[in-house]
Amino acid sequence: MKFLRKILDSSEKHFHKGGKLEKFFPLYEAGDTFLFTPLTRTKQGSHVRDALDLKRMMVTVVFALIPVVLMALYNTGYQANLAISKLTNFEMTNWQQFVLNALGVGFNPNSIFANIIHGALYFFPVYIITLAVGGTWEAIFASVRKHEIAEGFLVTSLLFPLILPPDIPYWQVAIGISFGVVIGKEVFGGVGMNVLNPALTARAFLFFAYPAEISGDKVWIAVDGISKATPLAELKDATMQISVSWWDSFVGLIPGSMGETSTLACLIGAVILIATGIGSWRIMFNVVLGMVIMSSIFNLIGSSTNPMFGVSPYWHLVLGGFAFGTVFMATDPVSAAMTENGKIVYGLLIGVLVVLVRVVNPAFPEGMMLSILFSNMLAPTIDKIFINANIKRRIARNVIR
After folding, report:
1. Considering the chain, what is the average pLDDT of its residues?
2. Is 154 or 115 the better-scoring residue by pLDDT?
3. Which of 3, 102, 107, 281 could bridge to 84 as Cys pair (CB 3.0-4.6 Å)?
4. Each residue of 157-187: pLDDT tens digit?
5. Where are the alpha helices (DSSP H) in 191-324?
């Protein structure tokens, strides 16, 4: 590490005002503070000291996402290899399959190594494009505004690929993350000012702009010509039987978006976020509680025409993007409610809305994305209500009678 420190120190003068690389100071600062703790101190006045700054907070979220990423790599490859193993006349049709064949890895669904390599060939190109395009927009806005590159993109760049299908066209990835960073965050002033979660904003843009590819009513398997109804779509259709088990859905061995299938991996991430104080347990708990209350009400009401009324809470828990959204999207520290009581209402609202969308809306079998974005818009109002109520209580306590 001393070697890296010397290189950064020797090149620092070129990035400061008057230096040859002055315009690229945000890039230098981003790399320097990512690798080493900043030595900057306030020169006067009182200030709050905390061992955890925004960069360390975001890095902790990245660590919490590691189980999800590993499961995304394995399951994406496993689903593709499983589909290929069932084909009688398999012909290679994309570059990933030619690479696997050239490396001699093969398409064995029982091989953990083959599954992970196959999944990596789908995940990492999407991740690299997200980093390159989104990072470019971050650098442009940081240079124009003359401030540091926002740490929040470190998490956004990892969340976005995880909520995408493995076979999404690369140009859609570039357009989606551009919309998420520019319209979802930078037009509001950058990190801390955005109302909506940038990764979900990017995903919502792709959903409405390219519904044929990303509407969510068909599962995504990284093999050309292989597709079928999602488990939620199967539950919605009275003529169909669900084709996956609850346990496989909990572990994540079902087709879907690359990082949204495993409730188990999301639970591991939730433990890390709660234990480190990064993620709000109030929001996570109340999202689940809202989902359980709303789905139980629908279970009691019942319906002879809509099978979704009978879907139990434990199925809602493991299907679609519920677990991933609860742990990593709903708890976004910028777009979520900030007050403690507000977090309870905010979480309950998401849990109720996701079941409402899934059960009542016949055109959209998912619901987590829209319920979180809608709740994002209401979060400032929810906080305002509790802040005003607290102010009134404090004023009332200090009235001299």
Report:
1. 85
2. 115
3. 107
4. 999 999 998 888 999 999 999 999 998 888 8
5. 198-209, 211-214, 231-236, 246-251, 263-275, 281-301, 313-318, 322-324
